[in-house]
Specification:
Chain A: This is Putative adenylylsulfate reductase-associated electron transfer protein QmoB. The complex is a heterodimer of chains A (739) and B (386). Chain A is of the alpha/beta class and 739 residues long. Chain A contains 18 helices and 31 strands. The two termini of chain A are 38 Å apart. Chain B contains 18 helices and nine strands. Chain B is globular and about 65 Å long. Classes of the chains: A alpha/beta (739), B alpha/beta (386). At the A-B interface, α10, β16 and β18 of A face β1, α1 and α4 of B.
Chain lengths: 739, 386
């Protein structure tokens, strides 16, 4: 269909007072020959929208350029259907609210933004959603413990079919060996019985849930809504097609044989918390050394946790679990001496009441480092410690049993690091640091980048913990429970429900061809112009989400439903063959080329700002909302992620005479804040290559700067923008200006 | 360093002696921070840390028996009213002291005090027959079957020459209001509040039993106390021993009489007056308004509030048996209190407790501020306003 552009200039919110709107209209109708251009004092009102709608219906306008407020607001007001291309010109926040009214430079800025958007509207197409084949909305739950059972039950309750795969012959997992759970209801003072059999019954009795016990996942290929799962069940094979996956394989206790300094392995009466729980479950709590009853017990918390020699992290559940087990002893016999040696007692929320109850029960709480677990000379054990609270070494009375509260080790961390492809001889090592993928034999994904979910610290599956704790780096796969992070029973059940909902969100969005996260609802996806592919593998290697597989000849095989639409592949491709309908190297390149660069003697420098849409661009809006001012030389182009920046844009800008380029991206490295995990880091790595471009053009490398910025840093932005402008002034104008 | 030994037996003994909530403590240290000992320098301040002392108690570990530590607490209740765990810290102090004193190991300086209370029924080494000497020149009625109120005068106001003024003033006020009251006299014994706080449980039981028997035999139903300490123990400790009466502090009764129009006061006090809240009247018994209302009536030029007042009032250091402690100048809480009063421009510092009177007068003298600030019992101001 022929494209017909309509440009609409809103004069409300101070725009009309600050700008020469007639001149703006002239840019559209004169320079760009836009057939329809109108202004309105209140464009987002019903009347303003009716004006646009009339043109769509009567004039055949199908590409809309809305020159009004930030594209981050009034999204619904300016939605005229998925088949209409909409481009927004941010005249309000980033022009009139942050620059002086009636000023020549403010006007030039507005006109440039209009030119850039008109160019984009001319080049872009409305996205056409990806349609997969044989889509499934079923949900695979891997692991039949407390978390997995809960996730399965919740997903089924929401009306979704579930396939549950459990490694052992029985459902229940670790909870099978547990006598009682910590209190979950008022008055929170007593361990409580948990009806695990009831939960198992709900799952096995549900006609929506298919249960495979004694099974493991041999292979998962495909992508969200099109995952093909091969299940090994006692030698036989089964195949299931599912839409999304909840990974709930849990954790295992830390290996106590490494805790000899706490007496484990040296004294038979030093045992672990899970061994004690099993004793209570069996109803036989006896000293392993002689089978005699236990008349005194000491718990050592953080046994191997929060210890740089063992597990550096807090295992989150052991404090409360030990309080619970101490309560078992006190309930059986209030006179039994019970010691709890701790670093910090982390009995969060209502578990405080349990802690308080055990204080009242007379448990000896000792805060400090355990320095020895020794034979008392009479066959029992005595614990010595450095007690912080009396600042002195102390020695416990004799106890019959010492219980080590060993921490949690995620099952996802149990595997050797997987290396996708060794560099061939003579081939240089990849500059982009590879993801940590541990071959833990849980999912066995047929993903080019590795068979499991990438991990960040300590082998836990990575999530964007600040904003999106439920996410993994694999779209449609949601780790839940202790495989994801150390947590207790009740939190694991909440986690399970959360992950089930995420999985449902995934299958529903994917079935409509929409991005799931974080660009939820985005219909565009990257398309590859394969005739020009050189099989360089950059896109397959750099995709933060493993969305692109490759064939034997190293041709990329994209999986659009795995994709998060960040455009990192587009930034990676040296041949520029990867494009979205509304976002491509060409579209952005043409926007840059349509910035008017005044001649050198006009002394009006130009600065291109490529701003991450997730943090930097909203921060720029915030500057306007706060009515702070910055120089009028900047021209901002929002990018999906700085990782989608293609180096050719830098060359385009500089050879056009633009004086400097500022890249505004998210914090990278440890505790990264990039919504797309590695985009900002990749942009930074690509920056190092910019020098070559600049050298070729005989330009100073200071003309391109990278700044890390979080959304809350908006206060610093005017200083960053003006500081860069001032530095560029020192460098002098770009010599390519008047060519 | 030699390890210290944890002892469940010792811990349980301390608990059985009254430190029932010592295990509830989670060692946050708020108590230590709020303790008035943090406000003064010196050896006791350096050694005494209530959080640490309770820690030793809950572990049954040695070290708490050090006299400087064990007897430092003035039981002001600042820590206890703010404890996030609801630990009854004063009971814990009492229990820990009792575990030592009960074993016959009372500190040397306290033995004459406890001995006098045993022998004479008062801790001031005053002979029993002199208990009523303060009444000289007054026509104080004897308590009889038809008397409404029994006026229980604190031992301190029976024997201490300065303190008798308060007892005499109260009698005048009660008479002016036409209250039916009387005293029993020589057979009365010390209420024992401070004895119990010092850990002499046996002595307390003896004194209390003697009083309960006496009061009940005399047909006592209602008691007026001159001291907030007697008020507190009669209200909180005597009932479970069989002493159940309607007990009221003189300030509350007088305030009620003023409100009922039975007592009229003419503002006679021309100087600026500040009121010091006694711990046992304020924090321990919740009486803040009655003394202030009375003072407003008696003070011509109105009153000023100390910066630390009501629930946040600073202890005079006389409770918990500390009235008998020798404290070097510069380490006395009362000195801070006198300074507080001077800072607010007060010329008179009034209070309603014989112990506070004792401590504040000492502090005022040790600071040599007696020319600038007069320490008086509230009852004296009121009596002068009759």
């Amino acid at each position: 269909m022929e494209k017909k552009i309509g440009a609409y200039i809103c004069t409300g919110c101070g725009i009309g007072d600050a700008l020469d709107v007639a001149a703006l209209t002239k840019v559209a109708t004169g320079e760009y020959k836009v057939p329809v251009c109108r202004e309105h004092a209140f464009l987002c009102s019903e009347e303003g929208r009716a004006l646009i709608r009339a043109d769509v219906e009567n004039e055949g306008v199908n590409a809309l350029v809305i020159a009004a407020c930030s594209p981050r607001v009034m999204v619904d007001a300016f939605d005229f259907g998925a088949d209409k291309a909409v481009e927004r010109v941010n005249l309000r926040e980033q022009v009139v609210w942050s620059h002086p009214a009636g000023d020549e430079d403010t006007q030039m800025m507005a006109e440039d933004y209009l030119r850039m958007s008109l160019t984009k509207a001319k080049d872009m197409e409305p996205p056409v959603p990806f349609e997969g084949e044989n889509l499934s909305k079923r949900i695979l739950v891997v692991g039949g413990g407390l978390t997995g059972l809960t996730a399965a039950r919740e997903a089924a309750a929401a009306g979704y079919e579930v396939v549950l795969v459990e490694k052992s012959d029985q459902l229940g997992g670790y909870a099978r060996n547990v006598v009682k759970l910590p209190p979950m209801a008022p008055p929170y003072e007593e361990p409580q019985v948990f009806d695990l059999e009831g939960l198992i019954g709900e799952v096995t009795g549900s006609d929506k849930i298919t249960v495979y016990t004694g099974s493991r996942i041999e292979k998962i290929s495909g992508a969200p809504c099109m995952f093909d799962v091969s299940i090994q069940q006692n030698g036989s094979q089964a195949a299931e097609r599912v839409g999304a996956i909840v990974l709930a394989t849990g954790a295992v206790p830390y290996d106590a044989s490494k805790l000899e300094h706490l007496g484990f392995g040296k004294h038979p009466d030093v045992i672990t918390a899970d061994q004690l729980e099993a004793m209570f479950k069996a109803g036989e709590v006896k000293r392993p050394s002689n089978g005699q009853p236990v008349n005194g017990v000491a718990f050592i918390l953080c046994a191997g946790s929060r210890d740089p020699e063992h597990l550096p992290y807090c295992s989150a559940a052991c404090c409360v679990e030990s309080l619970k087990q101490a309560k078992y002893f006190k309930d059986a016999n209030p006179e039994t001496p019970v010691y709890i040696f701790y670093k910090d007692l982390r009995a969060h929320g209502n578990y405080e009441f349990l802690y308080k109850q055990l204080q009242k029960d007379g448990v000896f709480f000792v805060r400090g480092t355990v320095t020895g677990v020794d034979d008392d000379g009479a066959g029992a054990l005595a614990v010595s410690a450095e007690d912080v609270l009396t600042r002195s070494p102390i020695l416990s009375e004799s106890v019959d049993l010492v219980v080590l509260a060993t921490g949690m080790v995620s099952t996802a961390s149990l595997g050797k690091p997987y290396k996708a492809q060794q560099p061939k001889e003579g081939e240089e090592e990849l500059e982009v640091p590879a993801d940590t993928i541990l071959a833990s034999n849980l999912l066995n994904l047929e993903y080019r980048q590795g068979p499991e979910i990438p991990a960040l610290k300590y082998g836990f599956p990575d999530s964007h913990f600040i904003c999106f704790p439920y996410e993994s780096r694999r779209t449609g796969i949601y780790p839940a429970g202790t495989v994801r992070a150390p947590m207790d029973y009740s939190r694991a059940m909440d986690d399970a429900a959360g992950a089930a909902l995420k999985a449902i969100q995934c299958v529903e969005m994917t079935a409509q061809g929409k991005a799931v996260h974080p660009r939820a609802g985005d219909l565009s996806y990257p398309e590859f112009f394969m005739q020009r592919c050189t099989q360089c593998k950059r896109c397959t290697e750099e995709c933060p989400f493993g969305a692109i597989n490759e064939d034997e000849k190293a041709n990329p095989l994209p999986n659009p439903t795995r994709c998060r639409r960040c455009g990192v592949c587009m930034g990676a491709c040296p041949e520029r063959i990867i494009s979205f309908k509304n976002y491509s190297v060409g579209i952005i390149g043409n926007m840059i080329k349509n910035i008017e660069v005044p001649e050198e003697d006009e002394e009006k420098p130009r600065i291109l700002v490529l701003a991450c849409e997730n943090d930097a661009y909203p921060a720029l809006d915030m500057v306007g909302i706060r009515r702070a001012q910055y120089n009028p030389w900047v021209r901002v182009i929002p990018v999906r992620c700085l990782g989608s920046m293609n180096l050719v844009w830098i060359a385009d800008a500089l050879s056009k005479g633009i004086d400097g380029i500022l890249l505004l991206g998210c914090k990278h490295g440890d505790d990264y804040q990039c919504h797309f995990i590695k985009g900002s880091e990749l942009a930074n790595i690509r920056m190092s290559k910019i020098k070559e471009t600049l050298d070729r053009l005989v330009l100073e490398s200071d003309r391109v700067r990278f700044e890390q910025l979080s959304i809350t840093d908006y206060g610093k932005l005017p200083e960053i923008l003006d500081g860069f402008a001032s530095d560029l002034e020192d460098l002098g104008p770009n010599p390519y200006k008047d060519f | 360093m030699e390890p210290k030994y944890v002892s469940a037996e010792m811990r349980d003994y301390i608990v059985s002696m009254g430190a029932e909530t010592v295990n509830w403590c989670m060692q946050c240290g708020l108590c230590t921070n709020l303790c008035p000992w943090r406000l003064v320098p010196g050896e006791t301040s350096e050694k005494f840390n209530i959080r640490h002392m309770q820690r030793l108690g809950q572990m049954g570990m040695e070290g708490f028996e050090d006299e400087t530590v064990l007897f430092a607490c003035s039981t002001c209740g600042m820590c206890q009213t703010n404890c996030p765990r609801g630990v009854k810290i004063i009971d814990n102090v009492r229990g820990m002291r009792a575990s030592i004193v009960g074993a016959g190991m009372a500190p040397a300086n306290l033995r004459p005090i406890l001995g006098s209370a045993h022998a004479n029924g008062n801790p001031w080494s005053g002979p029993r027959e002199k208990r009523t000497a303060w009444q000289e020149g007054l026509d104080v009625p004897a308590f009889g079957p038809d008397t409404e109120y029994f006026l229980f005068v604190c031992c301190h106001s029976c024997y201490d020459p300065r303190s008798t003024k308060a007892a005499r003033s109260i009698v005048k006020l009660l008479q002016a209001a036409g209250v039916s009251f009387g005293v029993i006299g020589q057979e009365e014994s010390c209420c024992g509040e401070s004895m119990r706080k010092l850990g002499d449980e046996e002595l307390f039981q003896k004194l209390a039993q003697s009083n309960i028997e006496l009061f009940n035999n005399k047909g006592v139903k209602k008691i007026i106390t001159t001291s907030p300490h007697c008020l507190w123990t009669f209200t909180n400790e005597y009932p479970e021993l069989g002493g159940e009466w309607e007990v009221i502090h003189y300030t509350e009764l007088l305030n009620r009489l003023v409100e009922e129009g039975k007592l009229s006061l003419n503002a006679a006090q021309g100087k600026k007056v500040a009121f010091h809240d006694p711990c046992y009247l304020g924090r321990h018994s919740g009486i803040y308004d009655a003394p202030r209302a009375l003072l407003e009536k008696a003070a011509q030029d109105g009153t000023v509030e100390l910066s630390r007042n009501r629930e946040a009032s600073l202890c005079c250091a006389g409770g918990g048996g500390r009235i008998w402690a020798e404290v070097p100048m510069g380490e006395r809480f009362g000195e801070l209190r006198v300074t507080d009063a001077l800072e607010q421009g007060a010329q008179v510092l009034a209070t309603a407790c014989p112990y506070c009177m004792n401590m504040l007068i000492d502090a005022c003298n040790s600071l040599d501020k007696q020319e600038e600030l007069e320490v008086v019992e509230l009852s004296e101001i009121l009596a002068a306003s009759l």
